[in-house]
Amino acid sequence: MALPPQSTSTTAPPDELPLELLHGELIFSGILLSKDKEGDINELLSKLEFIGFSTGYRLIERLLKDSTRFKDELDTIKFICKDFWVAIYKKQIDNLRTNHQGTYVLQDNCFKLLSKISATKQYLEHGPKFLAFTCGIIRGALSNLGISSVVVAEISTMPTCRFHITIQRAT
């Protein structure tokens, strides 16, 4: 007798589920560890960002293994907004702005990792925990492409978020 197929309680397609589950577990484990150690929230955010950095650094290598390098910084950021974001989140960034002096703002109007949580004030306070990993992914990808940067996330209203990228220039 054959067993009926298992159904999942989530609406995410099967190829998106591993990332969502991994991300959720990273956040949950980090919160539990920080409660046990009574640690600093900055330490938790730093760890999540480092895990994201390592992930982004390796992922960009796989995506660009047979490609040529980009001609300039703006082309690299456009690649992050389009192809790289699609590879991770199955959609493009909704808006890219720049001041043409090394500052870029990437806006995602329905960020997948925020769309699954409530828009209440309680969860808005936990927003940085949900975005630290992705900030690290962006910074790691750019680092592998030879661009040193600082990436900071901002949540205006759930699930919209902005990633502010500031390129670090050698002086």
From TrEMBL:
Q: What's a Pfam family this protein contains? A: TRAPP
Q: Where in the cell is it found?
A: Golgi apparatus, cis-Golgi network
Q: What organism is recorded for this protein?
A: Orchesella dallaii
Quote the PANTHER family the UniProt record gives. Answer: GEO08327P1 (PTHR12817:SF0), TRAFFICKING PROTEIN PARTICLE COMPLEX SUBUNIT 6B (PTHR12817)
CDD domains documented for this protein: TRAPPC6A_Trs33
Specify the domain of life of the species encoding this protein. Eukaryota
For this chain, the family text in UniProt reads: Belongs to the TRAPP small subunits family. BET3 subfamily.
Know the name of this protein? Trafficking protein particle complex subunit 6B
Family annotation (SUPFAM superfamilies): Ligand-binding domain in the NO signalling and Golgi transport
